[in-house]
Amino acid sequence: MGKLGKKARKFAKKNLQSVLKRKRKIKSTFKKKASKNQRDAAENEEENVELSTRRNSENGDIEDMSLEAIFSEDESDEDEGDVDVDDSGSDGYLSEDSNCLPIAESEIHLGENGAAGKPSAQNQEILLELENKKKKLSRLKAKDPGFSKFLESHDKGLKSFRNENAYSDEDERSDDGMQSMDEDGPHLYLNKLLTSSAINSWCHLVKEQHNASAFISLLNAYRAACHYGAESTGILGSGSGAPMLDCETFCKILMFVLREADDVFREMLGISSNCKRDTILGLKNNSKWKTVRPLIKSYLRSTLFMLNQATDSEILAFSLNRLRTSIVFFAAFPLLIRRLIKIAVHLWATGEETVSFHSFLILQDVASGFSSDCFDLCLIKMYKAFIGHCKFAEPALFKHLQFLRNSFVELCSQDLLRSSNKAKVSINNLSRILQLGLQTKKKEAVKKICSWQYANCIDLWVTYISHCIHDYDLQPLLYIIIQIINGMATLFPGPRYLPLRCKCIEWLNHLSSSSGIFIPVTSLMLDVLEYKVSKEVGKPGKDFNFSSAVKLPKHWLKSRNFREDCVFSAIELLSAHFAQWSYHISFPELATIPLIHLRKFQEKSDVESLRRVVKRFIDVVEQNIEFVKKKRDEVAFSPNDQQSVEAFLQLEKCSGNTPFTQYYRSVMEKAASRSLIMNENKSFLEQKKQKRKRGQNIVDVRANGEKVPEKSKVDQAVSVKDGK
């Protein structure tokens, strides 16, 4: 059959079924390809957006993850509690009866130097002006008696209005029973300058006659002494009209009020010295309480203000000690409790040894004697203060950081249920930071993990778990903290992180000894012996304290001391690990693999002193293996008998006379003496540097008049003799 003509081909393309089918197939394939490409492009865009958001969120999480800001507080309540009550409309002084003031005005003036005597010229001018104003007022009263009666009635109305609102419990910032100064009639007390004779007479009246008016005057004087020199209060400072105090009067007021105020309050209320919080709360509807409440509040507020301003450690320690006896009265003032906790935590974290100790005793009493909210507040604030002060570790601060850690753990042990919840939150935060560091290995995450703040936070919870694991079920926290420590050790495997690895092994040994659970740490310790040391070993490096570093400097890796530190650290940590299990029935199997590695190291090592140390350790471990095997062959019980296995060699363990136990003691003593010598050498070098700096900063004048660094008098005499 011949070819179709042109017209026939056109007709076939348009009308034949086979041609139409092929066209439909081609169109459908093109549509499918286009749809697939569009979908792939959309999916790729979505994946890119997700990846970018995920990366941004990871970066943000690393930067935003803070060890301090994991616990939420009610900041609004905290701010309310921190507002000074003196900022309200009252000046904070208690109202006094003018007839009860035992000292005449002529006896209360002080001289310029604070001694009793004739008033100064400036004070004489002020007194003359006051006398002239009094005369003018008396003339005005004589001329217009109606106007004077109107002023008196208006003044009485204002006083009655203040007294009606004095005891309202709705606003804790109002000064209960505390009268504010009037513009035309200031306090009689503020117009007088305090002397030791006035204070002595008030103290005598309070102690012998139990005079309430004299005690109120003393509390006002105590408030003035606590606020003395504080410029933030509007009534103090130069020319403010506040009472002037010399040193002797200041000390008398503080000592008497701090010693006697608590006994006076309890006597006025008729309560015993060992009353509880419920007793104070039950006195709210008592008439005596309404009278004494303003006095107690004034005393507590003044003492807290002084604790926040004073810097002398002896005054702070004595004030904290006396305030602790009156701590039960804080039950009636919730806002003052928050301020007390805030001040006590600050002094606990920053104060000297005695101040920090007394502050902790107050926090302990508040946490145990008040509500659970107070316990949570103390715990959170102490945790944040500890984390904030452990960012930098210096040898001089180690003792204080240890006290902060141990005291925090002691406070946590008062309520293990609530403290374990807080510990879980903090430990989970540590694990999230470590997980991000292991996944991303970015500089920010690694830097946050390899820091003193992160390490001290782990040390805090390791101590807490070790201390409380027998009193409460802390097995979940124990498992998480072990995983975190192992993760830190694997994240930083290099030789520069030797101090951090040693700390990780110490934590694991501590957890194992306190919990009684076997934690394998030999692989971490044997890795220390396999660190590659540079063949070009230089001179012995300067004394370096491992306890004050997380990461070693690069030049230290080339020094002779680095290899010695690696070996000594491994032997000390292995000794601590073996000492825990040296009496266990499976000790021979536990020590087999470490001994193989130690023998290889002994053969390869070319330093005779290090080989002797390792050889001595191997010999003692082998002796202990033979001792355990001999005792194990004598027993008749099965390995499945758990009680008999746990009781194996317990008598020998209590005696502690085995060779390995004695060897371990000698190793620890040598390590302690080595660290002590290192600290002494470091302090000696620091003293030398300080002396050199002092010598460079002294200025001398030569014979030609040119100024050079001056020398001491002895050096000047020597230079004159030498003709310099």
UniProtKB/TrEMBL annotation:
Biased composition (Basic and acidic residues): 703-714
Localization per Swiss-Prot or TrEMBL: Nucleus
Biased composition (Acidic residues): 60-89
Region called Disordered, residue ranges: 26-98, 161-182, 686-724
Nucleus listed as a keyword: yes
GO cellular component: nucleus
Keyword Oxidoreductase (UniProt): no
Chief place where the protein resides: nucleus
Residue ranges with Basic residues bias: 26-36
Homology family: Belongs to the NOC2 family.
Protein name, UniProt field: Nucleolar complex protein 2 homolog
Taxonomic lineage of the native organism: Eukaryota, Viridiplantae, Streptophyta, Embryophyta, Tracheophyta
